[in-house]
Design goal:
There is one protein chain. The chain is an all-alpha fold. It has a domain of 46 residues. Helix content is 75%, strand content 0%. The chain contains four helices and no strands. The N and C termini lie far apart (67 Å).
C-alpha cells in the first residue's frame, strides 16, 4: 500500500488526466493570471525607486526612512 502523499498525488494526477472541459478552464485561468501579474504590472505599478533614485544606497536610505518614520497625525 502506497503512503498517503503518494495516493494524494496519484488522485490529482489521474483527475487532471481525465479532464476534458477542465483543461480548457485551467488554460483560461492561467491566461488570466498572466494578464493580471505580467501585463497590468507594467502599466499600473511602475518601478518607483529606480525612477526616483540612481543608486542602491539612495534607494535603501529612502526605504529605511519610510519604514522607520513615525506616522503623521492627519488631524
Amino acid at each position: 500500500m502506497a503512503s498517503y502523499p503518494v495516493r494524494v498525488f496519484r488522485f490529482y494526477r489521474d483527475g487532471f488526466r481525465s479532464m476534458t472541459l477542465g483543461k480548457t478552464l485551467w488554460k483560461i485561468i492561467l491566461v488570466k493570471l498572466f494578464i493580471m501579474f505580467a501585463v497590468l504590472k507594467l502599466f499600473f505599478f511602475p518601478d518607483f525607486l529606480s525612477t526616483q533614485f540612481s543608486t542602491d544606497e539612495q534607494r535603501a536610505d529612502y526605504v529605511m526612512e519610510q519604514i522607520t518614520a513615525p506616522a503623521q497625525n492627519s488631524n
